[in-house]
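pasting for the record
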Amino acid sequence: MSMDAIDFSQELPLFPLPNCVLFPGVVQPLHIFEPRYREMVADALESDHLITMALLKEGWEKDYYGRPAVHHIVCVGKIVAHEKSDDDKYNLLLQGLTRARIVAEAKHGLYRVAKLKPLHDTAAEEADDNTQREALGLLFAQTALSRLPVSKTVQELVGEKVSAAHLADMLAFALIQDVKTKQRLLEQLDGTQRVAMVMNELTILAQAMSSAGAPKRFAPRISNN
């Protein structure tokens, strides 16, 4: 499903979590067990399979079961696979589709919904995109990042000329651990600036790995509601 196929005139389910930032083009495993979010998933599966992931702001613990504040830049995702257990819990794979901004919120049954405005990247010039993509490839060829299992995939994507901004989103999702940093990257709509930010974070990671002398393994964690 492309961004153009999303009906932004309708409110979409809002799934706020304190430790999960979804990016376009990546897939996030989710385990759904709270009654309100089980209702949300059931409704989504009966309609367009869309769920909007939002990061909770600091202090969410005080009102978790109410309506804690969320960051207004979010990512709309589509359920691409799911399984339902005998006790009505779900395991999902949610694929990020597009960035969006929350413009209004409401409640639908037990869960929150939001009216969204789609957001678009500022595209880089072709020459700049090529330069940044090649620089990302070099990071995974010439530094300690080459020891990561994802390194081979990065080189393949560089060879396929995937845009540097899209590649940066995938790397931010897979390798950057700090959710505040991830949220800043989600909010950055200038693709060139976002790639530069990701490269800075990856350079720091490469230096840390080199100092430690041992490879680290990263994988998207299954987020629990």
